[in-house]
Every structure is written in structure tokens, then in C-alpha cells.
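dumping this here before i forget
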Amino acid sequence: VQLQASGGGLVQPGGSLRLSCAASGFIFKIYTMGWYRQAPGKQRELVATITPQGSTDYGDSLTGRFTISRDNDKNTLALQMNSLKPDDTAVYYCHGRGVWGKGTQVTVSS
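structure:
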């Protein structure tokens, strides 16, 4: 089982990034998948989850700026992040089937 996140980087406040997570080694389409993040000195927190049927849930204050999606044919999970703020700076992790990906760094700074 492997989850490989990508797409992080440095972006200015107000900018956008799209994260991707490639899943392998399990039947992706039957599992709820999620994105989480951990900022320096803080606990890991929920960003968003998506069920196999496409129902979504978002962490506090993220609805409207972040959009989670999945492609069950390509075994990929995505997170579109818009209107980014410095407080969104964190390592973003893909999660599913009880497995954590290695994470990708997102830094929002001018």
C-alpha cells in the first residue's frame, strides 16, 4: 500500500496550488480518502475527506477555498487550494486505508 503526494511548493498569499496523491496497492475506489495537514508546532488536522461515492467533508474554515476530489479510474486524490493564506502553511498528507503518505510541503509567503 502506497500513497504518494505531490504538488506542494511556495506560493504567494492569495495564490492557488493543486495537490495530487497517487494511490497503489489497494482497491482505492472502496475507501474514504482524506487530506490532513500539520503546521510547525501544531497537531495534525483534518483538511478534507471524500467517500467512495464522492461525499465531502471539510475542516473548519476551509469550505469554499479548498476542494477535494478523486478519480477512481486513475486511483488519484486531489486537493485544489485557492485563496491561500500564510496560515495554510503546513505539510499536507494524503490518508486512506489506514495509511499515511509522506506529505508534501506547502508554504504560503510573500
